[in-house]
Amino acid sequence: MSKDGKTPMLDDLEKGAWPSFVKEIKKAAVKSNTAKDLLNILERSYRDKVTHWKHGGIVGVLGYGGGVIGRYCDLPEEYPGVAHFHTVRINQPAGNYYTSNALRELMDIWDKYGSGLTNMHGSTGDLVLLGTQTDKLEAIFAETTAKGWDLGGSGSCLRTPSCCVGNSRCEFSNIDSMEICDTLTHKFQDELHRPAFPYKFKIKVSGCANDCTAAIARADMSIIGTWRDDIRIDQAEVKNCSKDMDIKTEVCDMCPTHCMSWDGSTLKINNKDCTRCMHCINRMPKALRPGKEKGATIMLGGKAPIVTGALMSWVIVPFMKLEKPFDNIEDLIRKLWEWWDEHGKNRERIGELVDRMGMRSMLESTGLPPVPQMVKAPRSNPYVFWSPEDVK
Amino acid sequence: MSKDGKTPMLDDLEKGAWPSFVKEIKKAAVKSNTAKDLLNILERSYRDKVTHWKHGGIVGVLGYGGGVIGRYCDLPEEYPGVAHFHTVRINQPAGNYYTSNALRELMDIWDKYGSGLTNMHGSTGDLVLLGTQTDKLEAIFAETTAKGWDLGGSGSCLRTPSCCVGNSRCEFSNIDSMEICDTLTHKFQDELHRPAFPYKFKIKVSGCANDCTAAIARADMSIIGTWRDDIRIDQAEVKNCSKDMDIKTEVCDMCPTHCMSWDGSTLKINNKDCTRCMHCINRMPKALRPGKEKGATIMLGGKAPIVTGALMSWVIVPFMKLEKPFDNIEDLIRKLWEWWDEHGKNRERIGELVDRMGMRSMLESTGLPPVPQMVKAPRSNPYVFWSPEDVK
Amino acid sequence: MADKPKRITDIGAPHFSKFLPPVIAKNYGKWKYHEVIDKGTMKHVSETGDELYTVRIATPRLVSTDYVREMCAYADKFSGGHLRWTTRHNVEFFPAKDQVEPLKTALKKDGHLVGGIGYGISNVVHTQGWIHCHTPATDASGVVKAVMDELHEYFTTKTLPARVRIALACCLNMCGAVHCSDIAILGIHRKPPKVNEATIANQCEIPTTIASCPTGAIAPNPAAKSVKIKEERCMYCGNCYTMCPSLPLADAHGDGISIYVGGKVSNARGVPRMSKLAIPFLPNNPPRWPEVVQAVKHIVEVYAKDARKHERMGEWIERIGWERFFKLTGIPFTYQHIDDFTFARDTFRMTPTFKWE
Amino acid sequence: MADKPKRITDIGAPHFSKFLPPVIAKNYGKWKYHEVIDKGTMKHVSETGDELYTVRIATPRLVSTDYVREMCAYADKFSGGHLRWTTRHNVEFFPAKDQVEPLKTALKKDGHLVGGIGYGISNVVHTQGWIHCHTPATDASGVVKAVMDELHEYFTTKTLPARVRIALACCLNMCGAVHCSDIAILGIHRKPPKVNEATIANQCEIPTTIASCPTGAIAPNPAAKSVKIKEERCMYCGNCYTMCPSLPLADAHGDGISIYVGGKVSNARGVPRMSKLAIPFLPNNPPRWPEVVQAVKHIVEVYAKDARKHERMGEWIERIGWERFFKLTGIPFTYQHIDDFTFARDTFRMTPTFKWE
Ligand code: SRM
Ligand code: SRM
Ligand code: SRM
Ligand code: SRM
Ligand code: SF4
Ligand code: SF4
Ligand code: SF4
Ligand code: SF4
Ligand code: SF4
Ligand code: SF4
Ligand code: SF4
Ligand code: SF4
Predict the structure, then answer these.
(1) Tens digit of each residue's pLDDT (9 = 90 or more) over C250-292
(2) Residues near B228 by Cβ (< 8 Å), separated by ≥ 6?
């Protein structure tokens, strides 16, 4: 805090067209000392060019191992309002749909116990309530659960699963991404709330290869909708599209497998070669639709770079039908966790474990058969391991 | 040897259309007991399905550290003719051109002292004389040097450089690959004959990106001819070509940069985008020729997989004019060796050293500037090292 | 807590069906196609013939409870009490056809930015920064605000050859998952951790701390019951600090921002790819980070001018080549651009085929 | 050595100018274009108008001095005493125009194979095998002979969509530099080294031996002044054996051949690429290795049928996808195909876009 409580740098960020988070903090600061001191300590960071938050201690609610991130500032005397500044992760509903009533109930609770600030949403997907004190956690938990909400994940556990809008609004969807997300969330309550894994595990579900949840980049388990049969074509609508669009240049030439052709009146797709990348369907949603035999490609391992380099998820099951009650995917996930529990080191994500041990161990223990779709290309090095059985 | 001196398995390999090495061993065996026992011990290997050669000891000629590969069989009592079976590597002339007289002189020496068998050529490029005894090495050396020949490399030294036919016969050549190969061979006689490096170092020179010496895969230093200006086009000849060939499909559509177009009468090349891959020139050698501003791309690091995985050479100098007396490339190679000598571990190829230490150290010590042509793409991981100077 | 209610646990999130607008509940899984009406509005049409209108606005993500109430008020008035957030932190309303324009007018009047749909720049996925985290090398919300103040027209009106996804992460942990973004704004440290001798013996388990360093840069210092940092080995990843609070990396001068470009996650046309280093370092210059803003804007503009329609940033760069990307943007190529991490060899140009510039 | 001549050293190879045919010496650097006349003959034309004819034949590489003399005789009779070897171990003659046909007739009459030019299969680059090396997992010359007896028509008459370069290396050292070949025939061990307790103490330096193992599979066994092999860690690379003769890997049952495909070194159309595993193991079955011969032939035939003109094997496979390669060839996909070495992650399919088969 500048001595006079002024925040000139932050004030500057109230200007401009983009919505201002500073305005939001100021709104909250009207009612909350925590929010007020957040503003002050943030101004201090803007001057010092370093953070003023210390490592969080372990705080939480009874019987849960996660869901709350402890946070303390390093200048509690100067900024007593943020001496504690914990966040509470509320598990968002699949697809992030809300009613105004439900949201208002949550906001009321937060005004009562917290800073009045929130992230809609956290980058994993939670509804993040920012800034409260340790002694308020149980009350917050009690009141939110009473309204039907529960905590999301943090620590070495299943993190809050998330998904795209899928069937609820998107015509491209090949799986019921929201139902899958909700079902898995409920099947895995224990894994979500009581950290027992080597490290965090994230699940994201996208209804098609557009991957609107960025699952491939951000989830240990990425479930991506796809189809097995032919793209459905409405040739009349293709013709319609051709009025506004150069189908050859914008669609056929950009098809990665070059399996399309357009002669001005008929669009042909060699579906055997199509890899379901979605480009043509994206360009002509009225004319083209995914096939009817729908399911998902199951991919494993996506994560950020700490510390062996980022990974994107890769194919472990090319095609899986996903229908209620989704026992097949539950089963696979449990098997993967078992394997990971057995072999993973502390703070080793499942993708890193596969990278360290090789895919074979994971495949053998989950019973998945090796298929070429798992790899871009077979190995080029000659360092093949043979088990004694292989050599008879 | 089967007790009766019969070699039924090998005899089978005298049949068939492809030239037979067994016939060759038999021809030599007429005059040489060494060749005869080679046949016998080889038949034994065909039965046993294992080699019968032991680790070679260090053998060689006075003042040289390489050029001879020691070899002993593991059953000297049974196969005394090959108790010793050393090979002598003779440095081939650049481009592998010979006169019959010169070859006959060499063959006469070899009939006198060796098995009468040879590899034309070894996989590095040497003319390999196969199978002699330790006590004959000095005499072989004396007689071959007297005829103007010298030994090639082996061990931790510069290996015999090699090159493509280049200017001698190939219209695609952008550098005088044979003269470069010969000059470097002579400049580096000491490095070739007296192992003082951390490990082997190979140089191969190809006159263009077709890389007919497979330099990129097989040489620590791969020198590849290229040009800086525009491809020369003879439009009349292009038209001629179009009679036998579908220029659009076979040339333009296969150009990796899609920088060509053919309208049935004129071939256009957007040379700014051309990466000089050679495909179009290969297809129409009468119509297209490399530009006139010629030189080489200098690439570093190619090698087989032992033990960190195979490497292909990568760009360290996008363009270097290479003209007699080739001091610029000599100078660069010496600087690279100095850096490698300083930092390389025992049996660490220079490519592996760059891989271990990063390119920066090599570039700084050779004075080469970093340029985007050195990489397929910049790093994607965030693990950037900063020297204290970088951070001021 | 006198009248403590019965403890409820493990109920998970409420089922989404509670929150769906009726038209969605009715047409769930039956959508046939959609049309983008303008940058802030689209229409989805169902096999039943029903239509769903969506209006989208930008949010700062870090919002007050009053902001959420304000959104609820729009929802009540124009959207049957229903609203949602997108995976990139925008808010969406579902007005009936005749409510689309009134809603947009109201939103704009209140200063909200309607947009984010189709080929432009949507909201910036980002992280906590100086608002809530202990490891940041820069702020998050402030940088996003500064960048988007400059680029907001790409949200509301201007189009680009394809989607440009910008993300920010305030440290290498990359909570913003920036590693597959068209433009990634990444906070970086450039100085090794400073050992806090006073606290380390109490705060940290020395062997775990040493083991946490991927480069082996931490050596024991048993005399002081502490550790020593081999500074030349440190790559400032911060993993040690995550394990041991007595090894802070934050430094006003050392910290700053690097820009990575060309990543994506969608599989349309080409496979997902990681973002690659474009600018190794720009200083932290609050409150408006002008160097960062200019750099991002410049890259967007060069891309807008040179790329073909439907070509994401990374697709464009791959077509023209990195040598030309550096040429066109005028960004200098430095030692830092050349990978020297574990998998560096895969990034070396193992062919003499390249462009001169 | 009574009359020992004065010792000459470091003279290097003779300068090639001594060996060039006059037409080459005259037109050195002046060649303008070439024409392929048939699979064994080509003509180069100089800017001066001079013409050079080249006739090529296959050799077994391992030849007798008499074979070389036979070549010299052809050279003397038809080629002005000049000849050369190619980088793939073929012999080339340079007859005057009117000597081309007589030379070819003579060569064919003597059983030589004229060919190897253009789109087909040229000579097989290979190594020593059981002829001269201590580390092979298979023979070299014998396998090559067996394979080429079956495929020789691709050398002499039959064409293929593009060049198919076959190479063989008898162990992972890959002296045949097979790692960038259209088809690589690679000898492999599949059993860990057997420690020769009797000799190791004398023959090997234990610490160097232990250090030579890239996977840390060698542990000290101080009691026996020897080492122990942690068998499950061994990847049979043979590096230990190179350092220590008391650790042989050769084993009649364990050794055999693996087939890698799709590599190339030329930069034409696309960058050089490494060969990838197609068949993990085929047994050593001398003298004719029928399983290997059939496998190579089958791959060539499937390629010949399915690839487009000018498409090298690797380019073809990349276009159709590895899933289709395995489908078309009927080769089973196994655990061994999935990389698990240091850079394995780069080979994982990080996209749901693939073909069903
Ligand atoms: C709050 C949130 C950022 C945000 O502003 O939205 C966040 C905040 C933190 N993340 Fe994260 N991560 C958040 C989403 C992510 C994501 C994105 C995602 O889940 O889609 C990633 C990348 C994907 C991934 O998991 O790899 C992510 C990758 C990390 C990592 C690197 C993990 C790795 O294996 O590479 C760390 C460091 C670690 O785990 O040691 C980390 C660690 C942290 C910690 C706990 C800091 C630490 O080192 O202990 C941060 C606490 C900040 C705070 O005080 O609030 N966070 N973190 C996100 C969670 C909100 C939510 O629940 O919705
Ligand atoms: C004779 C020759 C094979 C042939 O039949 O042509 C050969 C033979 C041997 N090579 Fe080689 N290499 C031969 C060309 C190559 C090539 C090809 C090339 O040079 O273009 C390579 C791949 C390129 C490279 O250098 O990486 C090659 C890569 C190796 C390696 C693996 C090196 C690596 O770093 O990966 C070894 C093992 C080693 O060095 O420890 C090796 C080791 C050997 C040894 C010395 C065996 C050993 O482990 O000690 C072999 C001796 C066999 C013998 O008794 O004759 N040889 N070696 C070639 C040399 C003839 C010549 O001088 O012309
Ligand atoms: C609402 C949302 C899903 C959700 O559950 O919240 C969504 C919704 C739609 N996406 Fe998406 N995408 C959403 C995040 C994403 C993401 C994830 C991200 O940005 O973090 C991606 C991957 C981005 C990437 O590759 O880096 C994504 C890649 C796509 C693509 C592929 C773009 C491409 O060509 O690479 C399409 C198809 C297209 O644009 O033609 C698409 C198309 C669509 C369509 C048209 C699908 C449909 O028929 O409804 C939806 C409206 C698009 C629009 O906003 O223009 N959506 N979409 C997300 C809106 C985020 C936002 O507020 O801006
Ligand atoms: C004679 C030789 C050079 C030498 O110094 O000995 C040579 C000579 C020629 N090469 Fe080559 N290449 C020779 C080995 C190579 C190699 C190296 C190898 O095979 O180990 C390569 C790289 C192979 C690879 O990529 O794996 C090679 C890749 C090419 C190419 C590119 C082929 C492609 O499309 O990928 C061409 C151009 C073409 O074929 O259109 C070419 C073209 C040529 C031309 C047409 C060049 C010319 O104008 O003279 C020559 C006659 C070609 C022919 O044989 O059909 N040469 N050429 C080598 C003959 C080897 C043999 O006996 O078969
Ligand atoms: S991932 Fe596919 S199904 Fe899901 S919202 Fe995006 S486009 Fe629709
Ligand atoms: S989905 Fe992709 S691969 Fe399939 S036809 Fe359409 S553009 Fe081509
Ligand atoms: S590398 Fe180029 S210049 Fe040399 S022989 Fe081959 S095609 Fe000719
Ligand atoms: S050399 Fe290659 S890149 Fe250049 S124009 Fe010809 S085919 Fe295209
Ligand atoms: S990216 Fe780093 S600094 Fe930012 S919230 Fe995540 S862990 Fe904290
Ligand atoms: S910042 Fe990373 S590299 Fe540096 S000492 Fe800490 S853990 Fe090691
Ligand atoms: S490949 Fe292996 S076995 Fe064959 S010659 Fe080379 S080192 Fe010897
Ligand atoms: S063969 Fe290779 S992996 Fe096996 S013990 Fe020897 S050095 Fe180690």
Answers:
(1) 999 999 999 999 999 999 999 999 999 999 999 999 999 999 9
(2) B291, B293, B294, B295, B319, C356
Q: Which two structure tokens, joined as six digits, stand for A343?
A: 């072999």
Q: Is the pTM of this model over 0.90?
A: yes
pLDDT tens string, chain D, 357 residues long: the values are 455 657 999 999 999 999 999 999 999 999 999 999 999 999 999 999 999 999 999 999 999 999 999 999 999 999 999 999 999 999 999 999 999 999 999 999 999 999 999 999 999 999 999 999 999 999 999 999 999 999 999 999 999 999 999 999 999 999 988 999 999 999 999 999 999 999 999 999 999 999 999 999 999 999 999 999 999 999 999 999 999 999 999 999 999 999 999 999 999 999 999 999 999 999 999 999 999 999 999 999 999 999 999 999 999 999 999 999 999 999 999 999 999 999 999 999 999 999 999
- For chain D, the helix, strand and coil percentages under 3-state DSSP, each to the nearest 5: 35, 20, 45
Atom of ligand 11 nearest to the CA of D127: 5
Kindly report the number of other CB atoms within 10 A of residue D158's CB atom: 16
Q: What is the number of the ligand closest to the CA of B384?
A: 10
Q: Which residues of B touch C354 (CB under 8 A)?
A: 275, 315, 318, 373
Q: Is this complex scored with an ipTM above 0.95?
A: yes
Candidates A27, A119, A191, A223: best to mutate against C (most CBs of C within 10 A) is A119
The domains of chain A, with CATH numbers, are: 8-146 (3.30.70.2500), 162-227+293-370 (3.30.413.10), 232-289 (3.30.70.20)
3-state secondary structure of D182: coil
- CA–centroid distance, C193 to ligand 9, in Å, is 17
Residue C42, sorted as left (phi over 0), alpha (psi -120 to 50) or beta, turns out to be beta
Which atom of ligand 4 lies nearest, measured to the CA of D266? Answer: 25
Query: Which tokens in the block code for residue D113?
Result: 């194979």
- A103 ligand 1 Cβ < 6 A: no
Contact (CB<8Å) B228/C326: no
**Among protein residues, the one whose CA lies closest to atom 6 of ligand 11:** D175
Cβ–Cβ < 8 Å for A303, C274: no
Residue B2's pLDDT is: 45
Q: How far apart are CA B211 and CA B205, in angstroms?
A: 8
The secondary structure of A9-39 as a DSSP string is HHHHTT-SSSPPHHHHHHHHHHH-HHHHHHH
A 10 A CB-CB count for A292 gives: 11
Residue type for position D161:
P
Is the separation of the CB atoms in A295 and A225 below 8 Å? Answer: yes
Would you say B34 and B131 are in contact if contact means Cβ atoms under 8 Å apart? yes
